[in-house]
Amino acid sequence: MASLRFRLVIGFMLVSVPAMLASAFIAAKLISDAFEDNVEQWLGDTSRFFALEIAEATQEAQRVAGVIGHRLEQSSDDHKMQRTVEREFAVLNSVGYDLIAIYRPGGEVLYKTRDFSSLTPLPTETSLGLFRIETDGKRWIMAGAVQAFQIGGQPANLLVGTWLDESSFGGIKVVTALEIRFFALFDGKPELVMQTHSDRAAVLPEAIRARLEAGEGGIFDSDADGGAYRAVYAGLRGIDGQLAAISFIGMRSEAGFFEQLGRESLFLGIFLLGSAISIVVGILTSDLLVRPLRALTHGVRAIAAGDFGQRVSAGGGREIVELATGFNGMAEQLGKLQELEAELRRKDRLSALGQAAMVIAHEVRNPLGIIKTSTEVVRNRAKLGGAEEKMLGYVIDEVRRIETLVRDFLDFAQPKPPVKVELPLRAVIDRVAAIAAPELSRQKVALTVEDHNDSATVLGDPDQLYQACLNLVLNAIDAMPDGGMIQASVRATGESVSLTISDEGPGVPDAIRQEIFNPFFTTKAKGSGLGLAKVQTVAEAHGGSTSCVCEPGKGAAFTITLPRAQPGASA
């Protein structure tokens, strides 16, 4: 009686009469068609999502190729370009790009990460799409892009791409209830690249391939693999405009079909007999079974639109529950991949920013020294009036301020690795309190410390941790120009030790809370924007993290969390 199918059969047996036979036949046909339409639509949406993943891979390759091509164009000589190529190619290989090459429009290859040959002519203009590549005796289908640029005034092209293989479709493969196959076409013959279930032989019907080659879009086949699947075939065009690959997205024919048929037949039978009670039962069961499919369809569309936080409830029959569980797993994996990509991009931006700051700082430091020395010599040797003496003093003070800013830039761009020793985090805040005592008194700010760490210690660099905590205390002082209270709280868990510094200032507006740890972001008139960025850098160098919690008008609380030193640990 726990089986929904069995209960529907018993219900039909109890209410059926000879007059229902004709209506049951009509209902079965109508609902079968409706279910086929729903499945076709859902599989079509999933097929488009599959194609979207491949399109995103080519677009990402185009963005990467554009950036690298621009950097190569800025190289002033062959030696500098060679170093740029080696550095950028190494980075691209490390993040998963399988083939990078530079070639002339005539076909001459200048640089390449591996020996390869293209089975189709390589483009001479900026473009993106699917490439058919042969390397090491094996043929690949590649999602990539070509960027046209100039080398020494001569045209050249940069090719960047990644293989479409088993590892490329990790997100959609999480949906275990679906059969997903990916065929690549070489010399007009399909080769299987990926298959989620290997219990059946993957065969691509010749008629399907011919229809896709003729330009037809997605093809729904309700009798795929001899009736084992309901599936959608979709073609993907290569960089030459020819059919390069074919995707197969299928769902087993028995997955929920008879449940749908019984539910709707019961609803129509009850409608014809005019039984009010049976109508209510039919409506309830209809809602019970249709809702999961609608939720799945809505979820796939939301994921395709970029909403990776979408989840669906696991309700309905056993097959639908399995499908919903797989979908939720896929969405979670895609969300993690998106977060990882965002973090990698942030670190890449910080690295580029640090390199630029380091170059600028080195270029500025020497002229500043000359200006400072020359100004001091003039002030000491020349007989100047009071106004001129005061003006030269301003110059020297501003040069010193710029020197301090340059030194901060260099410290941020080239942070020293922490020299770790075991120490209590309470000792760090006590040192800060002692050093900052005169400033705290002058600003009419009181600093109190609450210690709930249970004698816990961390492995850390005392000087770096001191600098990070001092930055937070100074920020708290700046947030309270009329004085107030700073609360420092040290707490420990079994795995970590945290230090929270909170103030009574106006807090951090929601609009900028995501940016406050970015380097060079500041709301102060004379701030460098490196204080909180250095705090985060120090915490990450120690294997920890930073966070900010605040309520508007009730102050801000910044927390540094570090791993707790385990018994027997050493620096």
Automatic annotation (TrEMBL):
<keyword id="KW-1133">Transmembrane helix</keyword>
<dbReference type="InterPro" id="IPR036097">
    <property type="entry name" value="HisK_dim/P_sf"/>
</dbReference>
<keyword id="KW-0418">Kinase</keyword>
<keyword id="KW-0808">Transferase</keyword>
<dbReference type="Pfam" id="PF02518">
    <property type="entry name" value="HATPase_c"/>
</dbReference>
<dbReference type="Pfam" id="PF00512">
    <property type="entry name" value="HisKA"/>
</dbReference>
<keyword id="KW-0812">Transmembrane</keyword>
<dbReference type="InterPro" id="IPR005467">
    <property type="entry name" value="His_kinase_dom"/>
</dbReference>
<keyword id="KW-0597">Phosphoprotein</keyword>
<dbReference type="GO" id="GO:0005524">
    <property type="term" value="F:ATP binding"/>
</dbReference>
<dbReference type="InterPro" id="IPR003660">
    <property type="entry name" value="HAMP_dom"/>
</dbReference>
<dbReference type="InterPro" id="IPR003594">
    <property type="entry name" value="HATPase_dom"/>
</dbReference>
<feature type="transmembrane region" description="Helical">
    <location>
        <begin position="266"/>
        <end position="290"/>
    </location>
</feature>
<dbReference type="Pfam" id="PF00672">
    <property type="entry name" value="HAMP"/>
</dbReference>
<dbReference type="InterPro" id="IPR003661">
    <property type="entry name" value="HisK_dim/P_dom"/>
</dbReference>
<dbReference type="InterPro" id="IPR004358">
    <property type="entry name" value="Sig_transdc_His_kin-like_C"/>
</dbReference>
<feature type="domain" description="Histidine kinase">
    <location>
        <begin position="359"/>
        <end position="566"/>
    </location>
</feature>
<protein>
    <recommendedName>
        <fullName>histidine kinase</fullName>
        <ecNumber>2.7.13.3</ecNumber>
    </recommendedName>
</protein>
<keyword id="KW-0902">Two-component regulatory system</keyword>
<keyword id="KW-0472">Membrane</keyword>
<keyword id="KW-0067">ATP-binding</keyword>
<feature type="domain" description="HAMP">
    <location>
        <begin position="287"/>
        <end position="339"/>
    </location>
</feature>
<keyword id="KW-0547">Nucleotide-binding</keyword>
<dbReference type="InterPro" id="IPR036890">
    <property type="entry name" value="HATPase_C_sf"/>
</dbReference>
